[in-house]
Amino acid sequence: MDKIESYWNQFKKEHEIQASSYEAYSFGLGVEVEDELASLVQKGIKTATTSTFDLYEEGEHVPQAGDYNVILDGSGNPVCVTKTLLTEVVPFNQIMAEHAYHEGEGDRSYQYWHDVHVDFFSREYAEAGLVFTENVPCLCEVFEVVK
């Protein structure tokens, strides 16, 4: 059994959770950023995230309220479990400063969040052979740390 599955099974046992499914992932790209963002989640500072809705592939799980997630650091080690509380599809240019603040990154300002996400999403879209615009639909997710 791998370390992620073991971590998940221990969590289920400790919290008497019957759920059998979970997603395991890290935030960001690159070990340093992934470590930093995992730490922010673990500390309860980062309680939200945003992904580009159009880039979910057919059949890929789209986050929804009630989901459990094993958050990984940059080395693929589990650091905590979160539970998704809310998801909402919103055009990028209509995401509120409050959501940006809850993402917990940088100085937590809307401008910081905006600049980082334009850069990140532009690269994601380019890799998919598409062009990012500020009206693309985004999945805004709010979660809480449960372990």
From TrEMBL:
Coiled coil: none annotated. SMART domains: ASCH (SM01022). Pfam families: ASCH. Residues 25-147 form the ASCH domain. This is ASCH domain-containing protein. It comes from Pediococcus stilesii.
